[in-house]
Specification:
51% of the residues lie in helices and 14% in strands. The protein has 442 residues and is an alpha/beta fold. The protein has 2 domains: 15-220, Alpha-Beta Complex (Spore Coat Polysaccharide Biosynthesis Protein SpsA, Chain A); 235-433, Four Helix Bundle (Hemerythrin (Met), subunit A), CATH 1.20.120.1760. Helix 5 (179-190) crosses helix 6 (196-203), helix 9 (266-283) runs antiparallel to helix 11 and helix 13 (346-373) packs parallel to helix 16 (407-433). The radius of gyration is 27 Å and the shape is elongated. The relative contact order is 0.10.
């Protein structure tokens, strides 16, 4: 039987219902929605990401024991949220959904308070309809997950013990108030004690597949580590990364970020990466191999602050701006001191100067595009991704040449960097100019 009110949902709902009435017995009798993962409460993360997609009003169904904690949480962050109290939290979470029936009308999002979602997941899921399911779950223990059998794009069966299944329930739903017709029937039949899975199966909800993106649930302390790792791994910016970052630096930096994301702030990691870079520059006066290695270490650390910022939902334009300036100081200091300690003669001083200018122009050619057109050049011109000469590639190349610090190796390095950077800047300008059209003037 298909119940009314479960038609295809197109526009983004403005209300979200969050089920948070569980007692959290496996988490030491703590409200799971207020557990911190990557420096933020799970519920904070869910609300902020949904707000970015247009949800303005939140209904949190909790129990009497945790009412004060959730109320303090709402007031501290200034969220527009209402509490609905479930006096019988021992009953199934389908009953918790039913208690929200008088607070919502029309379309709404339904989520679980113990589920952690990446921004990319919510971006896709919020545009879906019915049950949001994942056919390729990467961050959950499938043996413990709720499985879904789908037929004609609707839920046929749902449960943890299904032998044959098509996808995994992500705990994210896009519904409308017609769902309360289903809960009303189950209230009478089950006397209020029924699960959300029973609601979903009875309603034969439509299914939207959102596959392979970042989401997980947190039921035990061990699963906090998995959620933290998921948030860091899915926080990689990626689009502007060079070859070395994609295939080496990010593999290391994300492991560092997963260890530190609950312990440090993005600004602290920016300072650490900057200090490491300046120290590597000073080491060119004493040991070129050690200077090169530390320069590469600073390049790896330079990705950690951004990963932590995105995982902690603390990204800011100012942070990116400061980070970019500090990178230029590190690169300029390293090359200047390297030239001072190794080169002699006007010709090589000129080549060193051209190298310094080229490193600046590589970043300036893209940043100036952003300022002039308010668009990301790497999105506008995907070919830029494959152009050699990005900062991560130049630093890695520098390290390789300095591991054997013969005079000809250092001179070769400056020649290659000078050519590489200016060619990249020229090609960037050429490729970008082919994608941009100026408005016609009359």
């Amino acid at each position: 039987m298909l119940f009314p009110g479960l038609k295809k949902v197109m526009a983004m709902p403005e209300t979200a219902v969050i089920l948070a009435a569980g007692l959290g017995t496996r988490m030491g009798n703590r409200p799971k929605g207020l557990i911190r993962v990557a420096g933020r409460e799970i519920l904070y993360r869910t609300i902020v990401l949904l707000k970015r997609k247009g949800v303005e009003r939140f209904i949190i169904v909790t129990n009497e024991h945790y009412e004060a904690l959730y109320r303090e949480f709402i007031e501290r962050h200034g969220f527009t949220a209402e509490l609905v109290i479930n006096p019988e939290p021992e009953k199934g979470n389908g009953h918790s959904l039913h208690l929200a029936r008088g607070t919502v009308s029309g379309k709404f999002v339904l989520v679980m308070s113990d589920h952690v979602y990446s921004e990319a997941f919510i971006e896709r899921a919020a545009k879906g309809n019915g049950l949001i399911a994942d056919r390729r779950p990467r961050w959950v223990d499938v043996s413990e997950a709720t499985k879904v059998k789908v037929r004609n794009n609707r839920v046929e069966r749902i449960g943890k013990n299904l032998r044959k299944w098509d996808a995994v329930d992500t705990g994210f739903f896009v519904l409308d108030d017609g769902i309360f017709n289903v809960t009303e029937e189950l209230e009478r039949e089950k006397k209020g004690d029924y699960s959300l899975s029973e609601v979903v199966e009875r309603a034969k909800l439509p299914v939207t597949f959102v596959d392979g993106l970042g989401w997980t649930d947190v039921d035990t302390p061990e699963e906090i580590k998995r959620a933290r790792r998921m948030l860091v791994k899915t926080a990689v910016k990626g689009i502007g990364d060079g070859f070395v970052s994609r295939h080496l630096n990010r593999k290391i930096s994300t492991e560092i970020s997963a260890l530190l994301v609950d312990r440090v702030t993005p600004n602290q990691m920016t300072a650490v990466a900057f200090a490491t870079g300046i120290l590597s520059a000073l080491l060119t006066l004493f040991s070129l191999p050690l200077a090169g290695i530390l320069y590469q270490v600073s390049s790896i650390l330079d990705g950690v602050d951004g990963e932590i910022a995105r995982a902690q939902l603390r990204t800011s334009r100012l942070g990116g701006y400061i980070d970019s300036i500090l990178d230029r100081y590190v690169d300029g200091s390293f090359l200047a001191l390297l030239a001072y300690s190794t080169l002699e003669g006007p010709l090589w001083y000129l080549i060193a100067l051209l190298t310094l200018l080229g490193t600046v122009m590589v970043s300036y050619s893209t940043e100036r595009f952003k300022a002039a057109f308010c668009r990301d050049p790497h999105r506008e011109v995907p070919e830029l991704r494959n152009l050699p000469g990005k900062r991560d590639e130049r630093i890695f190349l520098t390290m390789l040449f300095l591991l054997y610090p013969a005079e000809y190796m250092v001179k070769s390095l400056f020649l290659i960097l000078a050519l590489l950077t200016h060619i990249r800047a020229a090609l960037t300008a050429y490729l970008v100019s082919g994608k941009v059209s100026e408005p016609k003037t009359i």
